[in-house]
Automatic annotation (TrEMBL):
NCBIfam families xref list: PRK03655.1 (NF002971)
InterPro entries xref list: Cl-channel_core (IPR014743), ClC (IPR001807), ClC-type_chloride_channel (IPR050368)
Pfam families to which the protein is assigned, alphabetical: Voltage_CLC
Signal peptide: none
UniProt-recorded name of the protein: Ion channel protein
Lineage: Bacteria, Bacillati, Actinomycetota, Actinomycetes, Kitasatosporales
Sequence intervals crossing the membrane: 20-46, 67-86, 106-123, 158-182, 194-216, 236-260, 272-293, 313-332, 339-361, 381-412
Origin superkingdom: Bacteria
C-alpha cells in the first residue's frame, strides 16, 4: 500500500492535439502572405516616390537634392501633405501615433486608405520614422475584417496576433523576430496551454510573411562590419558600458517625449502641427546632414561601410540629431514607427565609442549601443536583443549582448515608455 503523504503531483497542462492546430495553418499562412504584400507594396511605392522627390525633381530645379534649402522645403512639404491627409481623409489616418505601439488597435476599414497614404508620404519625404507601427495597424485591421468574414466562428482575438506576427516576420525577413515578440506578449497575459501550442499559428503567419518578403524584397540587416572572433573580458566590459550608455541616451528622449508632444499639441490642428514638425526636422537635417533623414536602414549601411571614416564628434552629432529627429517626428503627428531610426542612433553611438576608444571593436560597439537604445525606446527585450544581434552576423556577440542587457534593463524597467495614453500621460 502506498502511503498518502498529503502531497500532490504538480498539474501538467495537456498539449493541444495536432488535429486542433492543423486547421490554423492555411488561414495563418494567408494572413502572412497578405501582410507581407501590404508591407512590400507600401515600401516600394514610397521608394519610387522618394527617388523622384530627392533626385530628378531638385535636379530639374537646379537645386542639390541634399542641399539645406531642399531638405527644409521637402520636410515642410511632407508635413503639409501628411497634414492634409490627416485633416481631410476619413478617420484622420488613425489615432495619434504617439499613443500606438506594436500592439495595434483594430481600426475600421475606412481609416486604412488615409493611414497608408500618410505612411507612404512620410517614408518618401524624409521624416525619421519607420514603417512598422502603421503597417502593423493596417494589417491588423485588414486581417480582422477579412477573417471575420471568411471564418466567422474563429475567435476575433486570433487575427490581430496573426497580423502582428506576420508583419514583424516580413519586416525582418525571419519568423524568429515574430516568435520572440509573440512569446513576450504571451508572458504578459494569462494563457492556457503550452508555449509552442500558443505560438504555432502566429509562427506560421510570421514564417509566411518572412518568406513572402524575402522572395520579393530580399531584406537584410547584416551591416558587414569587420569580423568579430572570440570575445574577451575587454569586449564584455565595453558591451556593458555602451549598452548602458545607449539606454540612458534613449531614456533622455523618452523623458522629453510627453513635453515635446504637448508642445506640438498646443497647435491643435494637423495643418499646423505637421508643417511645424517638418520645419523643425528641416533644421535638424541642416545640422546633421542627409544621413539623418528617412527611416535609417540605408543610412546605417553607409555609416558601417567605413567605421573609421568619421570622427567621434561627427558620430556623436549624428546620434544626437537623429534621436532629436525621431523625437520630433513621433511627437508632431507623422505616422511611423520608432525602431528603425533608433537603430541608426545606436549605430552612430556605437561607432562613436569605437572612434573614442580604438580597442572597442566596431561590432561590439554597434550591437551594444543598438541594444541599449532599443530597450529604452521599445521596452521590448527580445526584439532589442534580436535586432542588435542580427546587425552583426557573429555568434560570439550574442553572449555579450545577453550580459549587457541586464544592467541596461535595470536602467529602463519601471520607467516611462515612449508611448502616451490618450490624455498625454506616459505609459509605464
Amino acid at each position: 500500500m502506498v502511503q498518502d503523504t498529503g502531497q500532490r503531483a504538480p498539474s501538467v497542462t495537456p498539449a493541444t492535439p495536432a488535429r486542433v492546430l492543423l486547421p490554423s495553418i492555411v488561414p495563418a499562412a494567408a494572413v502572412g502572405v497578405l501582410c507581407a504584400l501590404v508591407l512590400v507594396g507600401v515600401s516600394a511605392a514610397a521608394e519610387e516616390l522618394q527617388k523622384v522627390l530627392w533626385g530628378p525633381l531638385p535636379d530639374a530645379l537646379g537645386i542639390g537634392p541634399y542641399s539645406v534649402l531642399w531638405m527644409v522645403v521637402m520636410l515642410v512639404a511632407t508635413g503639409v501633405a501628411v497634414g492634409l491627409v490627416v485633416w481631410r481623409m476619413p478617420g484622420h489616418a488613425g489615432p495619434d501615433p504617439a499613443t500606438v505601439g506594436l500592439d495595434a488597435p483594430v481600426l475600421p476599414p475606412a481609416v486604412l486608405p488615409g493611414l497608408l497614404l500618410a505612411t507612404a508620404l512620410m517614408l518618401a519625404g524624409g521624416p525619421s520614422l519607420g514603417p512598422e507601427n502603421p503597417i502593423i495597424t493596417v494589417n491588423v485591421a485588414l486581417a480582422a475584417w477579412l477573417g471575420a468574414r471568411a471564418l466567422p466562428k474563429a475567435p476575433g482575438r486570433v487575427w490581430p496576433a496573426l497580423a502582428e506576427a506576420a508583419t514583424i516576420g516580413a519586416l525582418f525577413g525571419t519568423p524568429v523576430a515574430a516568435a520572440l515578440v509573440i512569446s513576450e506578449a504571451l508572458a504578459r497575459q494569462e494563457t492556457r496551454g503550452l508555449l509552442w501550442d500558443n505560438v504555432f499559428a502566429p509562427l506560421t503567419a510570421g514564417a509566411a510573411g518572412a518568406l513572402t518578403a524575402s522572395l520579393i524584397d530580399h531584406p537584410s540587416f547584416d551591416l558587414d562590419l569587420p569580423s568579430f572572433g572570440r570575445p574577451g573580458w575587454g569586449d564584455l566590459l565595453a558591451a556593458v558600458v555602451i549598452a548602458s550608455a545607449g539606454a540612458l541616451l534613449g531614456m533622455a528622449a523618452v523623458r522629453a517625449f510627453p513635453y515635446v508632444h504637448a508642445a506640438f499639441a498646443t497647435l491643435r490642428h494637423p495643418m499646423l502641427m505637421l508643417p511645424a514638425g517638418g520645419l523643425a526636422l528641416g533644421g535638424l537635417a541642416a545640422l546633421g546632414g542627409h544621413l539623418t533623414l528617412f527611416k535609417g536602414l540605408d543610412e546605417i549601411a553607409e555609416l558601417a561601410h567605413d567605421p573609421d571614416g568619421r570622427s567621434a564628434g561627427r558620430y556623436a552629432l549624428l546620434a544626437v540629431v537623429k534621436l532629436a529627429a525621431l523625437l520630433v517626428a513621433a511627437s508632431c503627428g507623422f505616422r511611423g514607427g520608432r525602431i528603425f531610426p533608433a537603430v541608426f542612433v545606436g549605430t552612430a553611438l556605437g561607432l562613436c565609442a569605437h572612434a573614442l576608444v580604438s580597442g572597442v571593436h566596431p561590432s561590439v560597439g554597434v550591437s551594444a549601443a543598438v541594444l541599449g537604445i532599443l530597450l529604452a525606446i521599445t521596452r521590448q527585450g527580445w526584439i532589442s536583443l534580436f535586432v542588435a544581434a542580427v546587425l552583426v552576423a557573429s555568434p560570439g556577440i550574442l553572449a555579450l549582448l545577453c550580459v549587457a542587457s541586464l544592467p541596461a534593463w535595470l536602467l529602463v524597467t519601471g520607467r516611462p515608455q515612449m508611448q502616451l495614453r490618450e490624455d498625454g500621460t506616459p505609459v509605464r
